[in-house]
Please model this.
Amino acid sequence: MDAVKLYEGGVFLVDGETVVPASEGDAIKAMTGGEVTAEAARRGTIAYRIMQEHNTSGDDANLKIKFDALTSHDITYVGIVQTAKASGLTKFPIPYVLTCCHNSLCAVGGTINEDDHLFGLSAAKHYGGIFVPPHIAVIHQYMREMMAGGGKMILGSDSHTRYGALGTMAIGEGGGELVKQLLGQTYDVATPEVIAIYLEGEPAPFVGPQDIALAIIGAVYECGYVKNKVMEFVGPGVASMTTDYRNGVDVMTTETTCLSSIWRTDADTQKYLADHGRADEFKQLDPEAIAYYDGCVRVDLSKVRPMIALPFHPSNVYTIDELNANLDDILASVEKRADEIAGRAGALDLRGKVDAAGLHVQQGTIAGCAGGNYTNVIEAAHALRGKSCGDGVFNLSVYPSSQPVFADLVKKGAIFDLMQAGAIIRTAFCGPCFGAGDTPANNTLSIRHTTRNFPNREGSKPGQGQMSAVALMDARSIAATAANGGVLTSAETLDCWGDVPEHEFDASSYEHRVFNGFSKAEEEEPLCYGPNIKDWPEMEALGENVLLQVCSKILDPVTTTDELIPSGETSSFRSNPLGLAEFALSRRDPAYVGRAKATAALEAERKAGTVPADIADVFAAAQGVCADADAANTEIGSMVYAIKPGDGSAREQAASCQRVLGGLANICQQYATKRYRSNVINWGMLPFQSDDEPAFEPGDWIFVPGVREAIATGKSEFSGHIIRDGKVAGTMALYTAPLTDDEREIILDGCLINFNRRK
Model:
């Protein structure tokens, strides 16, 4: 049996221990002494109970959730507050934590980064929020230490919002969903399926949380086994991990494309919360005696070995031993993909980094919400005690995830051991995860205990001839590699693991630096605006008909949000909608912004009351389809086509940048994540899908008649008429997946801001 097994079909979990496939009805009867239906047993999952406790709809199948707390970092909170303010916000109704862990360096753009931090502090004072200054903690570590608790639900504007190991169901979404919560509205979603992640055995001492997570991601991502579902961690193997270790597994569930996660809790969870001064937040969570799950991922922890996720996705996984035994073949496949991404041959030379010693790595990083946890850094320090990272190209950086973690590591001597070995110690910061810190050199390979290794997310720019790459590994194997002079090495080769002293949490740094103003809004405190903080531009309501110009056509199997709006230095413009929009698709389709602007100029002419002369023939072709189409009722806008857009970050800018450039729609085969589709909707764009081949190219037009009435009356199927050279060149079938009543109104109004203003 492999370490990870996927069940076909649903399963019953009996007494939290025994997995019985639903197809084995007789076995269930024998064990329970009676007839058990899947429908009744669904209510026995932990996830079902928590979701229903937060559901205000009165409908088990369609949830309207109100969360217990919200959280955002400094790439997203300015836009959220600005949107909520424009929609009538007066105070934060629930705890809202604003952290400054993404643009902490303030390295580019002059004052604009720190200006945004001052805005965040002023918003916390004005509306009654919690403000965590730069370098104090990464967003998710603060939430684990200070906010998460048994039976809670937390919503964050970062995709890695995951606190399941503490008994909290957490969801990462775009800013529009947080705005709804701030305005007393709800998070509307059909009740998701729940998948059991059944853990058995215990991890080997040299296996870390990233290894467990990568093994699961590799098994479930490509087949979509848990997409938009809840992962519920159960089984006896849970008890083999400390809660800090579980946190490291849990945060990576985002990379499976699941909606949320939850774990059974136990005495170790209780101890973690008590050690962090929050014993009253513990709640015993277990599935009921009989619980039904829509699928099961069975993980034998004892069979997991040190893993590596090669570029360019966390699901591109191998054991380190497997890679080292097949370096030429496996690295050749990565190089081929690099050439496709960069659009040139020889973009990345990995095989040239192999010699008799093995694969030479140029950089190592242990950081953020996945890698910077106390246990990971302690283990890395033990591996490097008395050793050297060397004075060559290879370098190692370590970022403890919070000041309390950092302080305890100092007290225990771990920081001293790492520094003596040549590692560079930095403060709490998420930069290495999204290209705002530790960007590697061109044609180098970085190994990282962070969350993602998407193309160019580490900060390189293929349009300027740059290409570097990231492989994800656990801190233990990164430390083993560092101790071996940068030659890729499995943690299994060392015998120094498991001697982890108890973490002693001291909240003093939070008590002295974090502003906690929840329920103490001071309306007289003004919001502090820097010169780069701009209001959202006005957006118009949906037209009766739409004329969409194809401004980008992307045929990659998956398009990430980092390709839709690059991370890294572009985030300095996060508070300036039009400034940030200049970077939209810049690493994937540099011509997009120019095309979109040209389309927006045509719309400006139309709004002035005339058919733009440049596209008079296009309008004529549209009138051949719908005689009533004219400049008064046919809105012009840009459109992006991608096969599967939106994997990765929850940043709403992936959609809002298209919208402020005049975007009216996305067309795709499927959306990679719910959160990206929600962002498209909240910014007033049509979330079209199509099973037809995209028989159009950039510059062509797609005319969709009667779209406003169709959306308003609940229709979900549309005809898109392709116009090329002034003639109808074909028709494609478009559809929208189910929309809630509010989502329909948001699209009709043109965006969430307009929807709330009208309300």
About this structure: Residues 65-188 form a domain with the Aconitase; domain 3 fold (CATH 3.30.499.10).
